[in-house]
Structure formats: structure tokens, C-alpha cells
Amino acid sequence: MDLGIRGRRALVCASSKGLGRGCAEALAEAGVNLILNARGAEALEATAAHIRDRYDVEVTTVAADIVDAEGRARVLEATGQADILVTNAGGPPPGVWTDWSRDDFIKALDANLLTPVALMQALVPGMAERGWGRVVNITSQSVRAPIAALGLSNTARTGLTGFVAGTSRQVAGKGVAINNLLPGIHDTDRATALDGGMAKQAGISVAEARQRRYASIPAGRYGTAEEFGAACAFLCSQYAGFFIGQNFMPDGGLNNLTM
């Protein structure tokens, strides 16, 4: 399917690996020119080289911490005008609610609420002026199905969901569609680390730990970065203009929710 976005320009955050890279590759396959951002320069440049060689699109890289104001300014300067924005940031660490300080909450809010808001405030007005734009925020399944140990993430990402719910409806009439992707467990470095932690705690092999987690998912497996990226690319396509302020949860059926 031709997604109708060839030649568009996209900023994809945290895109050197994992779900961010999956989104970047899917957009590149659709012919979108990219600004890629991540903190680690080496992995970022390797990803950029792969995408340039495979998809023949323009790729600009900015190695910076998107949560830091100076780093974000450098990313936005390199981006200029963008038609597509994909926000993405690692989630705060798990823990117990009694242990979290005010500083812990502020750090979580900075990364998972205030940074994507700042990026939207910087880029969405230009999209609206030009009459077309797409924003996809990568958040978490914990927005719709809160996870007890991830209270910092639950709090910050739910705040972002509320912001998007209002903002998306204010710009929809100007051709800008803002939506959220709420991933369940995908086969990324994060999942591998969690498998290792479970294996150590239970005294089993990593392979056995992974099989136990597979068994909790009706689809019987983890998601892939490629299929997640394809979902993101569709939400950035010419066909997604009637999806406004929605929360899409690719989780393999893990969360038994009706709405």
C-alpha cells in the first residue's frame, strides 16, 4: 500500500534501536525523509547508515538527550519544518510508591509528559499552518492498564494522554492528526533485560523465563519492532486523518479490555 507520504519530513525520537528504529524504518520504506535522534552517537549513526543504504531517503542525525532543553533545541534546529513527529522516550524505573520522591516524579514528568508536549508545541503550529501533519506518541500499555510497579510511568504517560485528548481536537480541523501508540511487550532490549531479571529471580534460564511470559500473551509471542513500526507508519499516512486523539494498544491481547 502506498501510504501517500513519500517526500514528507519526519522527526523520530529515540530511533537508534527498538521501537523507535522500527518506526523510522517503516517511515523510510514509505519514502519519508528522516531526522533521527538518540543519545548514543555510535548506534544512531549505524542505524542512519543502514536506512540510507536500504531505503534511499535523506537521513539527518542529532545525538542528544531530547529531555534536556539544550539537546532538544539542537534537535529542533536540525529538524526545521516537519510534517511528522514521533515522540518516544524510555520509561522511568519501576518501584514502590512509598519510595518515590518529588524529584522522581518531576524527572518522570519531564521525560514522558513535558518533553513530548514541548516537541508538539514546537512543530504542530507549522503543520497546522501548512494544512497537514501527523503526530504519534509512543507511550505504554500502562496508560489503559496501569501496572502496579510502574506508578511513575502510569502517572506521567496518563498526563500526556490527557493533553493529547484536548489538543488533538483543536488542530484536527487544520489537517493535523495526533494519536498515541501504547505498546505491550515487544522483542526489544528492554524485553530481554526483563526476561533476564525474571530468570535470575526465579532461578531459571532466560529462555524459560521468556516462554513463561509468552504464555501470558494470547498471541503467544512478543511483538516485533517491524510490526509496531508499520502501525506507526499507517498512523502517519494519508489514510489516518480521521483518527483523532486515539490510543492504540498493540499488546497481543495481553490486556482484556473492551474499550
TrEMBL record:
<dbReference type="InterPro" id="IPR050259">
    <property type="entry name" value="SDR"/>
</dbReference>
<dbReference type="Pfam" id="PF13561">
    <property type="entry name" value="adh_short_C2"/>
</dbReference>
<dbReference type="InterPro" id="IPR002347">
    <property type="entry name" value="SDR_fam"/>
</dbReference>
<dbReference type="InterPro" id="IPR036291">
    <property type="entry name" value="NAD(P)-bd_dom_sf"/>
</dbReference>
<protein>
    <submittedName>
        <fullName>Short-chain dehydrogenase</fullName>
    </submittedName>
</protein>
<comment type="similarity">
    <text>Belongs to the short-chain dehydrogenases/reductases (SDR) family.</text>
</comment>
